[in-house]
Amino acid sequence: MTSGADLSATVPTCPDWSLEQLVRHTGGALRWVELLVRTRAEADVEEDQVPLSGGPEQTGDPAALDAWLAETGELLVGTLREAGPDAKVWSWAEIHDSGFWARRMAHEVTVHRADATLTAGLPYEVAADIAADAIDEWLQIVEFAQRADPADPANELRGPGRSIHLHATDSAAELNAERSEMGVPPPEGWGRLIELAEEGLVWRRGHEKATVALRGPLTDVMLAFYRRLPLDSPRLEILGDRELLEFWLARATFG
C-alpha cells in the first residue's frame, strides 16, 4: 500500500491526515474489528485495549508499515472465516453479527485504498459488485442515522418531492453489479433512485426521472458518493439540480 510512496504526503481526500496516518487509521480499524469478532464482544472495546492498533513503533518506515498492515489483514480474514457470517458480535448499528463487520471492513478498505491511491496520483478501479454494495451500504448507514439519532445531519435530508438518481454508464457495471436470479444483467445498467421523504430516506434499484442525476462509471459514482471525487470531475455528469446533490453530500456523513 505504501511501497514507493511519500508517507508524509497529505491525503487530498482526508487533508487532516498524512499517508502514514491514513494507513495507521485503516490498520487500526481492522485490528479493532478483529478483536471484536475474535472475542465475540458484547460491548464496544476502547482503542487502547487493542494490541498493536497504532501500528509499528518506528515512523516513516514503509516496509514496517506494509508488513504490519499485511499481517493485520491476514489476522482479520482468518478471524472472520473462523467465525462465519452469523457469529453474534457487538456493533454500533442494528445488525450485531460478524457478517456486518465483514461487509463494513470491506468497504472501509475500498474507500481508504482509494484515498491512498489518489494520494499517490495513480488510477483507481474497484470491482463493480464491491462498488455497488459500497453505495448500498452507505445508503443503509444514512437510513440508520436518521432512525437512531435525531441530531444527525442526515435528518436535514428529510422532505418531500426531491430525489437523486445514480446511474452507472460503464459496461462492467451492467455485466457484474446487478445480476438477476437468471444471471442476466438489466439492459439499462446499474442504477439507484433515492427519495428524500419526510419519514426518512427511501431508495430502490432502477432508473427513474429524478430531481438530479449523477452519471458516470460505477467506480467514479461510488467515489463521488463517498466525497472522494469532485462533482466537477470530467468523468462525471450531473443532470438537474446540482445543489441538491451537494446538499446530500454535505449531510450524508459518517463519523
Report helical residue fraction: 40-55%
Low-confidence stretches: none
What is the H/E order? Answer: EEHHHHEHEEEHEH
Biggest sheet strand line-up:
5-4-3-6-7
Question: What is the general shape?
Answer: globular
Please tag this protein with its features.
255 residues; alpha+beta; five-stranded mixed beta sheet; two-stranded antiparallel ribbon; 14% strand
Question: Could you explain how this protein is built, in words?
Answer:
The chain has helices spanning about 20-40, 60-85, 100-120, 130-150, 170-175, 220-225, 240-250, and strands at about 10, 15-20, 160-170, 190-195, 200-205, 210-215, 235-240. With about 260 residues, it is of the alpha+beta class. The relative contact order is 0.11. The strands form two sheets. It has a five-stranded mixed beta sheet. It has a two-stranded antiparallel ribbon with strand order 1-2. Helix 1 (about 20-40) packs parallel to helix 2 and helix 4 packs parallel to helix 6 (about 220-225). The protein is globular and about 50 Å long.
Secondary structure: elements and pairs:
Elements: E1 10-11, E2 14-18, H1 19-39, H2 62-83, H3 98-119, H4 128-148, E3 162-168, H5 171-176, E4 191-197, E5 200-205, E6 212-216, H6 218-225, E7 237-240, H7 242-251
Parallel strand pairs: 3-6
Antiparallel strand pairs: 1-2, 3-4, 4-5, 6-7
Helix pairs in contact: 1-2, 1-3, 3-4, 4-6
Entry summary:
The protein is of the alpha+beta class and 255 residues long. The protein is built from 7 helices and 7 strands.
